[in-house]
Amino acid sequence: MLKPFLLLPSSPSSTISSIISITKKISLQTFSLARAFSQLNASPITMSINLQSHAFAGNPLRSKSPNPADLISSLRDPETLKTRILDNSTQPANFKVLPFRNGRPLASSTSGSGDSPPIWNLGWISLDDLKGLLESSGVQLIGDSIVYLGSRADDDVAYWAIDVSAERNVVAELGSKEFCFVELRTLMVATDWADLQAMGNLAIAGHARALLEWHNLSRFCGHCGEKTVPKDGGRRKQCSNESCKKRIYPRVDPVVIMLVIDRENDRALLSKQSRFVPRMWSCLAGFIEPGESLEEAVKRETWEETGIEVGEVVYHSSQPWPVGPNSMPCQLMIGFFAYAKSLEINVDKKELEDAQWHSREEVRKALTYTEYKKAQRTAAAKVEQLCKGVEKNQNLAADYNVESGELAPMFVPGPFAIAHHLISSWAFPDQVNGVGRNSKQLGGSMSNL
Fold first, then answer.
1. Can you tell me where the transmembrane regions are (predicted)?
2. What residue segments make up the domains of the chain, in order of their start?
């Protein structure tokens, strides 16, 4: 049974700290997509798509400034923030706010050029516009209601997020201006993974959703039950009880995700769940339990779900995953290669629908580039329709088909998921360029495949 584990940044475990250190040293080889675009009219393309960073990573906003005396740093001070918001004589032109509704960020859409699909953008609005929208609903903006996201290195703007779920009039007003609140998963699929700016916007939206959902979960102190108040621009909270004053930090739930490999027969273990779209297979995954190392979690989860015994465990990379349930504001997916010591599969039907060994050739065929581009185009078109007020009951799962109209026998998650990169790194080992502490270990393991 999977069990979530609470990890507070104020006291990270040594294991997580070492993973973060390793992550900084690992660079994923950037794959040029231009050649692939020119071949889309040919037969379905299978390849390894390596990104500069995983989806939801690579956030271009920084939370702290190297100069504590500059404008951005002063704006994060709660009292300064309240003064700027309440003082109507001040023109806060350097504020941009991203509204959210029920975990969905505000977005807009612009038509693509030529055959390119529409492009979505974050729906930033000015602080004055936000105040006007709220006042039209009889609501006054207060400093505690917005959360600081950070600033860019190349501008003098403070970026914030706010939850307007309770303000129906605000939602209607924004909709009349061709803005819409879109599921983060839809934006994830709609994002062109070759567009660094779009990937950066996705990371910003993921970070903002995680913070806002955590704020909704941490309204009361878990120690004494009193209300909590935001501190440091909403990046932490503190109990309002003078005799308690417990500090509370944003929640992260660590999850191991692993590609189990059969070295001897050159196969990989893939699984499917009932909640997956048809024909999709992926890696095993599970939450870390208290008192358990990452390696132990990999071995335990693999054994519990498939009956496979794992020996060597090799770290690959990690990915923030802020698109889970509201009760888990952000999961941290920590990816591994796990090498099997036993091969007989005994599936736990409570956890998985099925699990099977697949040859390298089968896995390569499942990495069908055209399917991912079709899904991306479909999701981008859906965002455009939503922003125009035309919502169609469209099942994205049905659009995972190749350009010829023929369904691929199986496919794996798209480039927005760490599972894709674990699988493609194994399927196309010649395109892997791992460096850092694990390079020799990974290279040795891969050479034996």
1. none
2. 60-218, 219-251, 253-390+408-431
Would the CATH topology of 60-218 be identical to that of 253-390+408-431?
yes
**CA distances (Å), 424 to each of 35, 40, 51, 202, in order?**
18, 19, 12, 22
Residues with Cβ within 8 Å of residue 20, at least 6 apart in sequence:
12, 318
pLDDT > 90: what percent of the chain?
53
Ramachandran bin of 231, using left for φ above 0, alpha for ψ from -120 to 50, beta for the remaining angles = beta
Reduced to 3 states (helix: H, G, I; strand: E, B; else coil), residue 58 is: coil
Q: Are strands 331-340 and 253-262 parallel, antiparallel or unpaired?
A: parallel
Token pair listed for 148 = 């600081």
Asked whether residue 163 carries a pLDDT value surpassing 90, the answer given is yes
| CATH code of domain 60-218 | 3.90.79
Range among 161-170, 211-220, 427-436 rated most confident: 211-220
Architecture of domain 253-390+408-431: Alpha-Beta Complex (3.90)
CA distances from 10 to 17, 236, 258, 292 (A): 12, 10, 27, 19
Rounded alpha-carbon distances, angstroms, from residue 288 to 11, 16, 87, 300, 334 = 16, 11, 47, 10, 10
